[in-house]
Write a structure and sequence with these properties.
Oligomer: single chain
Shape: globular
Largest sheet: none
Number of helices: 8
Number of strands: 0
Strand content: under 5%
Length: about 140
């Protein structure tokens, strides 16, 4: 896949999460919202590759086929820039803490509706906030 594919998927997964949230499918909304961040990170990784294609480099293959936020952040070579952005934006730091808790295993979680709604709402807000959101941060030079 190419960088542009991952960029589009990031936007699509966030839109899907919003639709699921409106349909009161909170666990699924949370789950898909996490993939928006994963796709944004993989867009950065693809950018580093030949012809902006994924995978980028053989030495990081294990990490780039992961769903782990920290491994992907490192593979995308964004750890330092995100850390600097968090120092400059406290709200981004709070949002990042929400996003870092996501795991692809969340697809198996069933939460009490009230808890699921709050968790999904917090996740979507953390990703989509137009001023401080994680996706806005990751879109810089992606």
């Amino acid at each position: 896949m190419y960088r542009k594919d991952f960029q589009k998927l990031a936007e699509d997964r966030l839109a899907d999460a919003r639709v699921l949230f409106k349909a009161r499918r909170f666990d699924a909304a949370y789950y898909l919202a996490g993939y928006a961040v994963e796709c944004a990170l993989k867009a950065h990784i693809a950018k580093r590759g030949r012809h902006h294609q994924f995978p980028a480099a053989p030495e990081i293959v294990r990490d780039i086929y992961s769903h782990d936020f920290n491994k992907l952040l490192k593979a995308a070579d964004l750890a330092k820039s995100v850390e600097a952005a968090v120092k400059a934006d406290v709200k981004l730091g709070l949002y990042l803490a929400v996003v870092k808790d996501w795991t692809e295993k969340s697809r198996y979680n069933r939460t009490v509706r009230r808890e699921g709604k709050k968790k999904a709402q917090d996740m979507i807000e953390a990703i989509a906030d137009p001023n401080h959101g994680v996706l806005k941060c990751l879109k810089i030079d992606w």
